[in-house]
Sequence to fold (239 residues):
Amino acid sequence: EVQLVQSGAEVKKPGESLKISCKGSGYMFTSYWIAWVRQMPGKGLEWMGSIYPGDSDIKYSPSFQGQVTISADKSTNTAYLQWSSLRASDTAMYYCARRILAYCTADGCLNTDHFDYWGQGTLVTVPS
Amino acid sequence: QSVLTQPPSASGTPGQRVTISCSGSSSNIGSYTVNWYQQVPGTAPKLLIYDNDQRPSGVPDRFSGSKSGTSASLAISGLQSEDEADYYCTTWDDSLNGPYVFGTGTKVTVL
Fold:
């Protein structure tokens, strides 16, 4: 069974650093991109960036480039999202999701591009 | 601000049909397939429709998706109380907004 299990909720002060995690299991972790998605309180979903653990290729949304760092550890099947200096505006729920680029049926394999499994979310609170 | 526009809300009574639109442009919906996610309050998003009109295993067939030009739609037929949730369209985008964008989201209320 494919699972993405995220680290627990965090309460931090402005200026502090933070690294949250997303551990994959039930599949070959190095063969699928992992995306990070932000959801601010009462707001919609925002794609922050993605990493391919197989070779650590990383893509960032222009809105988040330079604001966060995405990384992965193949040895522990874990992806990370980190901040060097948190702000109150970083208060949000953060989700990781697995990106699938192909799937196979009885009729053959087809290209696709969507997030098929999601973590449960990590709530980050930075009181102002 | 998202480049994919959805109505903020939609509603219907049990059994009714509800349709949610997702409007984009040639740099996103016009060029790529569309996926839809359902987010029940307090839970993580869940894949509902992928590749414009495909349902993952376990998603009821009363959910259907379509795409035409630079717009996409999600239809819920036979609306049920458990369908009350937020719905988001997503796709790729070739502009500086990308590469991956979510719609503004639509809150579906079952009256």
Summary: Chain B touches chain A at residues 2, 32-33, 35, 37, 39, 44-47, 50-51, 56, 86, 88, 90, 92, 96-105 (CB under 8 Å).
